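Customer escalation, tier 2.

The customer says the design service returned an amino acid string that "doesn't look like it belongs to this structure." They asked us to rerun it and document both sides in this ticket. The original structure tokens are below, unchanged.
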């Protein structure tokens, strides 16, 4: 305290949310509902998503995950908390923006391979990648693991 900070703040960090924005909590919540609805609609239009997410409730569940909410909050911030501009960004000229996370990037057979590998190797992600999923990056496997831990399949295996 009291010392000058000569570091270039622009290079150190990037502001991703302003808690002193002009929107009310209700307006933000309403925008998040719209963002989830747009995410569900984007999945309905996307061929690869409909193959992986064959039902509407599964698409809606996927659209409710963190990746969609992070995108929505980022969209609000990048548009200066202007709801109309943010909405237009969610649904640009070419159609709705689709944000996917690792859970959606993996097929059912890849998820089953992962579970089999996890049973065999535990959390040795290098061995899992080497012997079961060599086409996946190590980062992808680790990210999938932490998302998979939040699913019903993980809970069933633990019990």
């Amino acid at each position: 305290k009291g010392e000058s900070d000569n570091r270039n703040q622009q290079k150190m960090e990037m502001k991703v949310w302003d808690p002193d924005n002009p929107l009310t909590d209700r307006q933000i919540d309403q925008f998040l509902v719209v963002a989830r609805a747009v995410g569900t609609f984007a999945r309905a239009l996307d061929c690869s998503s409909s193959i992986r997410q064959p039902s509407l409730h599964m698409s809606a569940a996927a659209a409710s995950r963190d990746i969609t909410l992070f995108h929505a909050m980022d969209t609000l911030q990048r548009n200066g908390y202007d709801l109309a501009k943010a909405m237009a960004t969610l649904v640009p000229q070419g159609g709705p923006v689709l944000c996917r996370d690792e859970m959606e990037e993996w097929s059912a057979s890849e998820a089953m391979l992962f579970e089999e590998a996890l049973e065999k190797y535990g959390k040795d992600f290098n061995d899992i990648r080497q012997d079961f999923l060599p086409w996946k990056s190590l980062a992808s496997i680790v990210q999938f693991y932490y998302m998979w831990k939040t699913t019903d399949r993980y809970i069933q295996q633990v019990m």
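Tier 2 assessment: The sequence is consistent with the input. The chain has two domains: 23-100, 104-158. The longest helix spans residues 25-45. Sent an explanation to the customer and offered a walkthrough call.
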